[in-house]
Design a protein that fits this description.
eight-stranded mixed β-sheet; 10 helices; globular
Length: 356
């Protein structure tokens, strides 16, 4: 009897392993969302109750896709580059995307069949409109080429938005927002604007959304390999830095506070992405925390980026982009970064910002 029970347990363990393996890929697609709640992610002919088991497991997996981590949990800092070279998996088993870890032609062709829409928000206020032309022209050459992409440009100067030739099924919408005499205030309000846009429009129009900095340029392929439920990018300035030295918000009274012994990576605020509903939750949470800080007259050290890093510690990204997806033009390539895909351009901050 014990041996029979062990055999059944082993059978079920192997079966569930196969099911989960099959679901891992589906979990990173918009198709997963389209079948959510229908209990039909997997269908098999029933034998020994297999159909019921697969339905149950698939339903539970769909409902439990968020990777929450408790606060105060102590563990070793994850590394991005080790003695054997680049690291391609986080400790919570999310892929870290580097050159050589995917076939761009294969993965793009798989996702193109799903007829997805990628919304992309960009904030260009004041003199930052000068970066729009380079951003958009380079995006049309490298960013989700062959996919349906909708750009949403937030600006206080709609007349300065350049006319750029867009490819087939590529669209651009200009959204007027108030000006500000502080660049910090512009940064602080981005989560609020993103939240409202998703709720009012994107929830019914897009499968994925990325929020990207405008003072950037695409230099290499950026495609479906970047898609996931919740996506963050590792900041190029801190990918080999001890977390105690990360520029996290260290004041306990701020909602963005992170203790020195906690943290995984330092994520750049220039790239946020994922399923529309997951980015909405991120934006809403960060906006509420920003409002709570403002109510006691405190501003996190790096504004929304500080709150983003707090969010990602306890709401783990399902996919992490390597520094290839957020470089800086003034930095030389390192031996780990073989391809620069997206980079912040050189600029004189004093000349483009409304205040020091």
């Amino acid at each position: 009897m014990i041996r029979s029970a062990q055999n059944i347990h082993s059978f079920l363990f192997v079966l569930l392993g196969m099911i989960l393996s099959g679901l891992i890929y589906v979990g990173y697609t918009s198709t997963w969302e389209k079948y959510r709640g229908q209990n039909e992610c997997l269908k098999t002919e029933g034998y020994l109750g297999i159909t019921k088991i697969t339905t149950l497991v698939s339903t539970n997996m769909q409902q439990d896709v968020n990777l929450y981590s408790p606060q105060g949990l102590f563990y070793k800092q994850p590394i991005v580059v080790g003695t054997g070279g680049i690291v391609t998996l986080t400790p919570w088993l999310a892929p870290i995307v580097w050159e050589g870890t995917f076939d761009p032609q294969l993965i793009d062709s798989i996702y193109k069949q799903q007829n997805i829409t990628i919304a992309t928000t960009v904030f260009a206020l004041g003199k930052y409109t000068q970066f729009l032309k380079t951003f958009l022209e380079s995006a049309e050459q490298q960013y989700f080429v062959g996919f349906r992409v909708s750009y949403y440009i937030f600006t206080d100067k709609p007349e300065d938005v350049p006319v750029v030739k867009l490819g087939t099924e590529r669209y651009l919408t200009v959204l007027k927002v108030p000006s500000s005499n502080r660049w910090q205030e512009i940064t602080l309000r981005r989560m609020e604007k993103l939240e409202k846009l998703i709720e009012s429009q994107l929830a019914n129009e897009a499968d994925y959304v990325f929020s990207l900095d405008v003072d950037t340029k695409f230099y290499g392929h950026w495609g479906a390999e970047s898609l996931g439920r919740l996506v963050g990018v590792i900041h190029p300035g801190y990918y080999q830095t001890p977390r105690e030295q990360f520029p996290y918000e260290r004041r306990p009274k701020s909602q963005a506070f992170i203790p020195s012994a906690e943290g995984d990576y330092y994520y750049g605020g220039a790239v946020i992405g994922g399923f529309v509903k997951d980015v909405l939750q991120l934006a809403k949470t960060c906006r509420k925390q920003l409002d709570a800080d403002a109510a006691i007259s405190i501003e996190a050290v790096w504004q929304e980026e500080s709150h983003l890093n707090k969010y990602f510690i306890y709401n783990k990204p399902s996919k992490v982009l390597s520094p290839e997806y957020l470089w800086q033009d003034f930095k030389a390539k390192t031996k780990e970064v073989k391809v620069i895909r997206f980079s912040q351009v050189n600029k004189n901050y004093a000349a483009v910002r409304p205040n020091p």
